[in-house]
Design brief:
alpha+beta; 2,3-Dihydroxybiphenyl 1,2-Dioxygenase, domain 1; 5-stranded mixed β-sheet; two-stranded antiparallel sheet; 21 helices; about 15% strand
Length: about 475
């Protein structure tokens, strides 16, 4: 509890994440199997690699890995996105980054809601990748108008969720009883509803344009479409999934396997075909099905600087220009082999990544550095202090997402019949207007974190800096 008697935002976020995980495990049992598999792989990796365990402990703590999740939802209107921003803010989650998925043929643009500061991320790094449907990409004017009218009629938030959101904004937080009620109320927005709000004919027309459009428009809520545990060895998970009765997608999205992981690697199991009841307009229903929800796994590595990200994007584009992963996995091994060869030009050790300015690092005192600080300190710049063995550097973990990877996950789970490929220009201005603010810039957040860690080391170690601080 906070000093005002309010539940801390990190506690609220952790409770919501746990409640979401329990709900999704009940709704999608294969997700529970996936979490158990990831837990087994992570435990084995930590036992076999003490250096990795030590590095993780030095940054955010090993315990964070077990609790870490990200989810994804798809919203239909600007009002839904603006209200979702306010709800997530109550839990200390704020929009970071803008993702245009239309470049990959997916009719949405998105942001990620997550904690911003390192302490909040370490306490609970729950994230929600939140997409907004671009109805302007429906060419059929009549169908577009019908979809807009359907979305305008629905309300995806309960009265209690809206009331408690406003209360938290007004009072600065929620007490224990209200916090529990808030979690229960918001959870309803993410729950699966097997009854569609459109008839089967309308669903089929939306589906023919794009399966994702049918997913967003046809139901009374956005239903979370996946939850993602974090693994320390995604290749081991990918290999072990079939033995647990789970069929993985053909290729792992993102960079290839490396000694020093970078950015984000993701894989998933195929979306479930679930029964849905469609109203027939006469008080009855037409039985059908819908495919949208799946399980995903992620492995996170070092956050790259703009220079590093530009090189990553260039190499990924070059690899995909030669071999594009086939939906049926026919060329999966050829693609993964080619990707690995292409990325031999990207440094695979932390010292070189740092020296070339390709990744962000967090600096901290070694045991020798702490002893030197207690003994009066040592003059020198950060490079001197590293050379003396007084300061260590560890990669700052990437907390965000990759549009090409997100699109690859979407496409593999929408299926071959997802719909025609859409082409459109990004419309960040429209997204920000709907959101009600500009998302934070991820590179700025990482750079600030790196700079703050350097300043902290210098202030602790350099006598002159300590004298200025105490003056």
């Amino acid at each position: 509890m906070s000093q005002q008697g309010f539940v801390a935002t990190s506690d609220l976020r952790a409770r919501f994440c746990a409640a979401m995980s329990r709900m999704y495990r009940d709704e999608v049992p294969a997700y529970g199997t996936l979490v158990e598999l990831v837990g087994d792989v992570n435990a084995a990796r930590l036992e076999s690699d003490p250096a990795l365990a030590g590095a993780l402990q030095a940054i955010d703590g090993v315990a964070r890995i077990t609790a870490e999740r990200h989810g994804a939802i798809r919203l239909g209107t600007a009002d839904e996105l603006a209200t979702m921003r306010r709800i997530f803010a109550v839990m200390g989650m704020h929009p970071v980054g803008y993702y245009d998925l239309t470049a990959a043929g997916i009719p949405v643009h998105a942001t990620a809601f997550r904690p911003l500061d390192p302490a909040a991320l370490a306490a609970n790094p729950f994230r929600i990748f939140t997409s907004l449907l671009r109805l302007d990409l429906i060419d059929d004017a009549d169908l577009r108008a019908e979809a807009e009218a359907i979305l305008a009629r629905r309300s995806i938030f309960t009265a209690d969720a809206l009331r408690l959101m406003a209360q938290a904004e007004r009072e600065g937080g929620l007490g224990a009883e209200d916090a529990a009620a808030f979690i229960d109320a918001v959870l309803e927005t993410f729950r699966w509803h097997p009854h569609a709000c459109v008839d089967h004919a309308t669903y089929q027309r939306l589906h023919a344009v794009h399966r994702l459009i049918a997913d967003v428009v046809s139901f009374r809520g956005p239903h979370i479409n996946h939850l993602t545990p974090r693994t320390l060895d995604i290749d081991a998970v990918q290999t072990a999934m079939p033995a647990r009765g789970i069929t993985p997608k053909a290729v792992i999205e993102g960079p290839p396997q490396r000694r020093c992981p970078i950015l984000l690697r993701q894989t998933s199991f195929k979306a479930l075909e679930e029964p849905v009841a469609f109203p027939d307009g006469q008080g009855g229903v037409v039985e059908g099905h819908h495919t949208a929800r799946f399980g995903e796994i992620e492995q996170r590595g070092a956050a790259l600087t703009p220079k590093g990200r530009a090189r990553y994007d260039e190499l990924l584009a070059a690899a995909r220009a030669e071999i594009t992963p086939a939906a049926d996995g026919a060329n999966a091994q050829a693609y993964m082999d080619h990707l690995e060869r292409t990325f031999t030009d990207f440094p695979d050790d932390h010292a070189t990544l740092r020296a070339e300015g390709l990744a962000y690092f967090q600096y901290s005192l070694t045991d020798a550095g702490a002893a030197a600080a207690a003994d009066g300190g040592v003059d020198g710049d950060i490079e001197d202090l590293i050379g003396y063995g007084l300061v260590r550097f560890d990669p700052i973990i990437y907390e965000d997402f990759l549009p090409v990877s997100a699109a690859g996950i979407f496409q593999s789970n929408l299926g071959d019949g997802a719909g025609p490929t859409v082409t459109a220009d990004a419309n960040r201005a429209a997204f920000e207007a709907a959101l009600g603010t500009a998302p934070a810039d991820e590179f700025t957040l990482y750079a600030e974190r790196e700079a703050a860690s350097i300043d902290h080391c210098l202030e602790r170690l350099r006598p002159a800096a300590r004298e200025r601080r105490s003056a």
